[in-house]
Amino acid sequence: MIIKNPNTGRNMQINTHSISDANNTIEALKENTSWALTTVHQRTAMLKRFRQLLKKNRDQCQDAISKDTGKPRWESLTEVDAAIHKLDATLMAYDYRMNYPDHQSPQKIIQTLHKPLGCVAVIGPFNFPLHIPNGQILPALLSGNTVVVKPSEYSPTISKLTEKLWQMAAQNTPTPIRFVYGDKVIGKHIVNHAKIDGVFFTGSSHAGLVIERACLKKRIPCALEMGGNNALIVEDATDDIINHLTMSAFITAGQRCSCARRVIINRKHEWIIDEWVKAVKQLSINPYPKNDNSFMGPVVLPNVKYELLTKKFNHTTPLLPAKDIGAGGLVQPRIELCAGPLDKELFGPMAMIMLSDSFEESLSLANQSGYGLSCSIYTQSKKKFQHAFHTIEAGIINWNTPTTGASAYAPFGGVKNSGNFRPGGFSMIDHCAIPIASTQSNHIHPIAIKGMHA
Ligand code: NAD
Ligand code: SIN
Questions:
Q1: Is any atom of ligand 2 closer than 6 Å to the C-beta of 405?
Q2: Burial class (CB in 10 A: 0-12, 13-18, 19+), 357
Q3: Distance 200 CA to ligand 1 centre (A)
Q4: Is the peptide bond before 289 cis (omega within 30 degrees of 0)?
Q5: pTM: predicted TM-score of the whole model, two decimal places
Q6: In whole angstroms, what is the distance from residue 55 CA to residue 147 CA?
Q7: What one-character-per-residue DSSP string does 275-336 give?
Q8: In this structure, are strands 411-412 and 424-425 parallel, antiparallel, or unpaired?
Q9: DSSP labels for 220-255?
Q10: For ligand 2, what atom is nearest to the CA of residue 202?
């Protein structure tokens, strides 16, 4: 298939697999019954080898991510480092969640043991092409599953490199992880394949809801990390808030699920608007590799740039129009004042400002969305934050910190159309194995039965 390189706008031919290749891959993983029988120490050893390879190939991975996504070098390096550090968090999560208390009673022990799901599919997005699939692959493998990875069709370079590193990490053992390349057609085929036992998806709500229905029909579990139309509420403000707004709305050129798309400002702080627009005009935006000291690079999807430049929304007034600033996906962020309901995730650098007359109105506006991923509340009052925490419908609720910037040591996921109420992140381990109750005794003891005459 052909995709456009976001840095240059030039067409790129990428190799994809056929349906029969996908079938063969799934069959091979399903036949690999030895992985589930290895000990957690043996599995950890392979994951550590992979981490070592990521460290050794840190610059190569950075270059591959930047080539695929246009992220500045500094930003791709933070993604590689996040992938490197993810193993520590995954091992901690495993210890924390896989060790239920045993209960000893006379003549028996009651234990909770875990079984892997089997062969699971990890379907990834383009915006964190290494870190996001890695955050699902590590707990899935550690729990004893085999994994078929279907990376985004827009991240061919880093996905091929990751595949190679996994092959090296497997050494001479039958590999428990394989990659299949293609677009949503192959993704759908994998989800619906009879031998897939679970689906871990990160991407748009539209695709996620289709996958959720397919998994329900097959009665297999799925983890869904989907889109957002996130609100950032400004109740109190100082000059320092301007950079918080920029980091929330425009980091990664607005291509993070956690980006603030609606900035809800109490009218008493209307002054922020001009200050923010001025600051955003100063952002340096360049394609890779020219963007070493830039804030952001291009948007990846050509249709997103097109929509940013042309799409008109009802009830809005332009404050900063999007501007085409070069080949590929280069575009200056767009900011509008919005006076009506608007519930669309445009996955790029676009923010809608809404003005409110009270904190209650801000909370109500924030909840007027079918999405529920992240929300930040800026206020000096802990009481107001606590009230917001109970009122806001979202999976991530921050106080005086940006909507973006997830930690590996906390759950990450959403409610409503942003997730299936069971977050990933630190909690991803919970999706990877089934807790099985087992009451055990090493001897057949007599059981006295009431009402039975000897
Ligand atoms: P996308 O939904 O277009 O594609 C994601 C992946 O799913 C790709 O690999 C694609 O080929 C595959 N796919 C698409 N339709 C499918 C289907 N019906 N069946 C099986 N596979 C299918 O998303 P994208 O454009 O790659 O990523 C951007 C979206 O991802 C945004 O909506 C963003 O908010 C969301 N996202 C969410 C999170 C999160 O953790 N909640 C993180 C990153 C991105
Ligand atoms: C994302 O997964 O798209 C965002 C995570 C973050 O904000 O760090």
A1: yes
A2: exposed
A3: 11
A4: yes
A5: 0.98
A6: 22
A7: HHHHHHHT--B--TTS-TT-SB---S-HHHHHHHHH---TTEEEEE--EE-SSTT-EE-EEE
A8: antiparallel
A9: --EEEE----EEEEESS--TTHHHHHHHHHTGGGG-
A10: 2
331 close to 305: Cβ distance less than 8 angstroms: yes
The series of mean pLDDT values per 10 residues for the chain, 454 residues long, is: 97 97 98 97 98 98 98 98 98 97 95 98 98 98 98 98 98 96 98 98 98 98 98 98 98 98 98 98 97 96 98 96 97 96 95 98 98 98 98 98 98 97 97 98 94 76
Positions marked active-site? 225, 257
For 124, the enclosing helix (H) or strand (E) is none
Task: Give Cβ neighbours of residue 448 (< 8 Å, ≥ 6 apart).
Answer: none
Pocket test for ligand 2, best of 81, 232, 256 (most atoms within 8 A of CB): 256
Q: What is the DSSP letter of 429?
A: G
Place of tokens 């059981």: 447
pLDDT at position 454 = 60
Dist CA 292 CA 63 (whole Å)? 12
Backbone angles phi, psi at 95, to 5 degrees: -60, -40
Cβ(150) to ligand 1 under 6 A? Answer: yes
CA nearest ligand 1 atom 13, residue: 184
pLDDT value of residue 48: 98
Nearest protein Cα to ligand 1, atom 23:
203
Q: How far is the CA of 111 from the centre of ligand 2 (A)?
A: 37
Question: In testing the pocket of ligand 1, which one of 204, 218, 343, 345 has its CB within 8 Å of the most ligand atoms?
Answer: 204
Indicate if ligand 2 lies below 6 Å from the C-beta of 258: yes
Instruction: Determine the pLDDT at residue 340.
Output: 85
Distance between CA atoms of residues 436 and 92, nearest Å: 21
Q: Give the SS3 label for residue 353.
A: strand
